[in-house]
Write a structure and sequence with these properties.
Blueprint: E1 13-18, E2 22-27, E3 38-43, H1 65-69, E4 75-80, H2 86-97, E5 100-103, H3 104-117, H4 129-135, E6 141-145, E7 152-156, E8 159-160, H5 168-178, H6 181-194, E9 200-204, H7 207-211, E10 217-222, H8 225-238, H9 245-261, E11 274-277, H10 283-297
Parallel strand pairs: 4-9, 4-10, 5-9, 10-11
Antiparallel strand pairs: 1-2, 2-3, 6-7, 7-8
Helix pairs in contact: 2-10, 3-5, 3-6, 5-9, 8-9
The protein binds adenosine-5'-diphosphate (ADP) and deoxycytidine diphosphate (YYY).
């Protein structure tokens, strides 16, 4: 078993719970303060050794405590099609209300990057499933908080891979990886562990249906494939990464197809999810819309 923790500790630390399955640590201000400024959950499970931790309160530079304090702590699931703005919305909301934000897609992307780097794709793009199964114990995913942006950065076996998991190569290989039952089982367990205490916004494909079926607020986001491809194209160009609109559109459509048709936890709207088509909404408009949904659900 291997445990690695990276966190900027800003105060006294207290281990509040320690079982054979998990350790829960709270970090306090040096000044007397009843509330922890960070909570870290580390799950230890020999069949699922992927580790995650999240310094909760450090996520928010200025969380809107006024909104949060008088409301109940809930779970927010944001699912939907590729590149429609799920993580943008989820991050914006989490910052506003001081919740944990987890990008579950980043976890599938990190497993994909591991496969690329360890030659676990065959010449025709087929996954060497048996070898990946053997290696799954060696894949450690965690989130490290960026001290400048206060947003989580994805780490794979201790290395920051936040940029490398966003390339078109990873995007084009991630959907087949996400169809594998044993990969999904390992990641879903981790995601559920992270959300045990509520106060979390998680985005992905199966959050409202499989990971948190009891979430108090479920959103299902969509936008037209052309608009989604354009958004991803603009993003890659802005980062100075080479991009072809046609390749991205093809990738978006192909991933939609695989995500919707896979056997395990296919992408679908939960019956109790609210549908949002943000094709013609600005980022600010969708943020305001989502905050209103939160206020209603957390009352
Ligand atoms: N309403 C919007 N209008 C224009 N661009 C948007 C909107 N929402 C998100 N974006 C941009 O679209 C791109 C994809 O958004 P992202 O949040 O990464 O999508 P997802 O998490 O669904 O894959 C990002 O560059 C983001 O800034
Ligand atoms: N909960 C999740 C999250 C992502 N996935 C899969 C499906 C997606 O094609 C990949 C990558 O997800 P990601 O959210 O990063 O993809 P986009 O940002 O929408 O392009 O992972 C999944 O199967 N289940």
């Amino acid at each position: 078993m291997c445990i690695s923790l990276w966190i900027y500790l800003r105060g006294p630390v207290q281990i509040v719970a320690c079982t054979t399955e998990s350790i829960r640590i709270e970090v306090y201000n040096r000044t007397a303060n009843a509330k922890p400024i960070a909570r870290i959950y580390v799950s230890i499970n020999s069949t699922c050794p992927l580790l995650d931790f999240y310094p909760e309160k450090l996520l928010s530079l200025k969380p809107n405590y006024k909104v949060q304090e008088k409301m109940k702590k809930i779970t927010i699931a944001i699912d939907g099609f590729s590149s429609c703005g799920k993580s943008t919305m989820a991050k914006d909301l989490a910052k506003e209300i001081g919740y944990i934000y987890i990008d579950s897609g980043a976890m599938y992307r990190a497993v994909t990057l591991y496969c690329i780097e360890h030659n676990l794709f065959g010449p025709d793009g087929e996954i060497k499933t048996d070898e990946l199964k053997q290696d799954i114990d060696k894949i450690h995913i965690s989130f490290r908080l960026d001290p400048v942006t206060s947003l989580p950065r994805t780490c794979l076996n201790g290395n920051d891979v936040e940029e490398r998991i966003r390339t078109l190569e990873v995007s084009s290989k991630v959907s087949p990886i996400a169809t594998l039952g044993f990969v999904r089982e390992a990641l879903v367990r981790q995601q559920q562990e992270l959300g045990k205490e509520k106060g979390i916004v998680m985005d992905g494909r199966d959050i409202g249906t499989t990971v948190f079926p009891d979430a108090e607020l479920k959103i299902f986001v969509t936008a037209s494939p052309a608009i989604r491809a354009q958004r991803r194209y603009d993003e890659l160009r802005a980062k100075g990464q080479p991009a072809s609109y046609e390749d991205i559109l093809h990738n978006v459509e192909e991933r939609d197809r695989i995500d919707q048709s896979r056997e395990v936890s296919p992408l679908r709207k939960a019956d109790d999810a609210i549908l949002l088509d943000n094709s013609h909404m600005t980022i600010t408009e969708q943020k305001e819309w989502l905050i209103n949904q939160f206020k209603r659900a957390a009352q």
